[in-house]
Model the fold of this input.
Amino acid sequence: MCDFFRKSAAVLLAIGLAVLTLAAVLGSSLPDSFFVENGSSLRLDSLFCVSAKPCENDLAASANVPGRSSSTLMLFGSVPIKDVDTQFVQRPMLVPCGNPFGIKLMTDGVLVIGLQENCGKCAARESGIKKGDIIISIDGKSVLSNDDLSSIISRSGGKSCKVDLIRDGEHLSLDLTPYKINGEYKAGMWVRDSSAGIGTMTFYEKSTGIFGGLGHPICDADIKTPLPLSRGRTGSIKLNEFTRSKSGAPGWLSGDFVNGSNTGTIFQNCSDGVFGELYSPPEVDHDPIPLGFRQEVRSGEAEIYTSIDNSGPQKYSILISKVDLSGDSSHDFEVKVTDERLLEKTGGILQGMSGSPIIQDGKLIGAVTHVLVDKPECGYGIFADKMYEHCRQRSAAMQKAS
Done:
């Protein structure tokens, strides 16, 4: 009998430790905040029974934050996992697009993309300037373009200049002394003040005209860092023939700007995509659909809207796998094209399809962001609510300003 009780206690202890370990693992793999539709409760699509209950120490409620509360995620209804912030919102209705659009960006300052030796000398390098630095001003004069930089340096007379720049988000001031090369004063660096390209629009909101696209930033082609945005605009694109994807060599969409086709402005270029306001929305056959929240995304079948020619967005089937809610990964979930029509035409995902909206269970839940080089039928996606949050912040700022 004693043996029986000892074995039972050992089993119960092992089960208890396993449950606590599982709770700890789930705690590290789940986000610290969620959007929840007004009138609903927080529910997680999980292999395990994860529910939420109001937090006993509701910091958000005690601080009188409208529409926010704290919840405790519970495993099997009894084991606490972690406290999370819950924000109750009216579920947005968004138009899924899938249309190609042109992007033109002007940088905020100029981006240093290379350093050049002149007769063994480089004034920029000797001053401490590095690739990736964003030069904002020289001797108090704003630098908004390549011409601004050249003009200020050429008029320096070789005297030391104070260069104000941003490096990794930190403001720095350096002293630069230009060298006279072939009768002209030079700093010995290449800079960029603008960029242009094409991408796919993910959604727009009819009530505000705000849109989101790409699901990743526009980066400089040489140093692969996001371009600091001063201003930007969108335009219509006429697609040309695409290059088909194959293992080891993803294909790409190519297109040309339609002359005089300004369709909107861009207010943000960040890690989650490109965002702006449209005054000429794309023509689509889709009605607005609800925004899906990240906890509603599940592994399984879904579909994308995307364009590979000028006939407009078409619907194709995909499979979603490896959903990651933690926010620690560089990608939110993995996608695989399963539609034979798209596979036969393109070989999978093309560069330029980034931003193609993903629909699951009648909701806009994400966008395609990347293609896998060795498996072009596979790629990655971003949660749509993460993209929409940038638009939501803009709308709030607009309302506050008015």
